[in-house]
User: Fold this.
Amino acid sequence: MLNKVFAIGRAEYLEAVRSKAFLIGLLVMPVLMGGSVVVQGLLHDRVDLTERKCVVVDPTGELWPVLERAVAERNAAVWVEGDDGELEQKRPLFQLERYEPAAEEATDVVLSERVRDGEIQSFVLLSASVLDEDGEFGERPLAYHTQEPTFTELPDWIAECVNSDVRRRRFEGASIDRELVDKLNRRIPLTTWGLARQRDDGTVEAADEENKIRTFLIPAAAMMLLFMIIMTSAPQLMNQVLEEKMQRISEVLVSSVSPFELMLGKLVGSACVCMTLAAVYLSGIAWATHHFGVAAFVPPSAYVWFLVMVVFALLMYGSIFSALGSACSELRDAQSMMMPAMIVIMIPLFAWSAVLESPNGSIAQALTYVPTATPMILMIRVLAPPGPPVWELFAGFAMCIATTLVVVWAAGKIFRVGVLSQGQTPSFRKLFTWIVSK
Assistant:
């Protein structure tokens, strides 16, 4: 049996790694991930420098001079000397225009038409009560109107200018020294550190300052990498099985091997493909972390755990997709069956932030024992400080083994019946009857 399984697995593996699709897939993931970083870096200083025109309606008459002075200072500050000694504009200029509405005029309607006509980008309506000492501003003390709500730099700047001046007036009205208040309210910076410990020789090992990359980014990135590697191979099993079934190739294959051996051979081949992808990417990560001096952020055990979780996840999810592919006779049926399977697989993606926030909390512990979620959840917990207790590592590992055995067994039962069935519309109820049948 094993010889046949390994022969099928070897054939599937060689066919996969020799294909153009594998080479393209091997390059696409780092290109996409690295390309996004490069593009963000290139676009970091590339901003829209279009002048932003804003009309200000100030019934108090006291805040307009403040905004007028502030915008002059702000516009002067956006010009920065470049490497060649020339002044370069780094942010868009703001142009403010004061507007005094006529009696009985619907100011918001009139100015809205100017925005629609492209004369201005926005307008601000200040309430007459904005300077009231009792702080009762009314419903809309400072209203910003625009067609471009995603540009927040201008409204944020206006709000800061208005609030800063209003606070200054309050302090002056209360005869309080503003500088003294700022000094008394000065915040103490907080830094997060690990734990110190005393060595056997009596010396003390100082605590290390926590790094957000090590604490948050690496666990999340590891789970996403694991998910992407699995999703490049597992769904393909459903397509391969369905294609072979539709072309009657599977009928020829099962005349030489049993359906379970055929399915297991395909799983072995896909597992080898995933291991190849993982080895390439992990080698690149290891080189990059050493090159940039952050190798300590990723412990060596994390690489081992990652490879082990790749195998478990592929066997679980690959079995599910293989079984669904064998049960379907048309691509339309496979697509409808695929969605519930994807929801089960994506449970860790829905809950990863809660797990990362409290790696040893009740939610993380509970999700560790959700069968199909164990590989990804355990991967996050292994990399997130302080890591799970040793007994939970063994428990999670045992859960992976048990889940894999059950899923592969159940998928084999479905595969045995489904791969030779034709013209039947599959349903999950029918799949269950195939599992429990003798």
Notes: The radius of gyration is 32 Å. The longest strand covers residues 52-57. The mean pLDDT is 83. Strands lie at 52-57, 79-81, 87-89, 94-98, 122-126, 142-146, 197-198, 204-205.
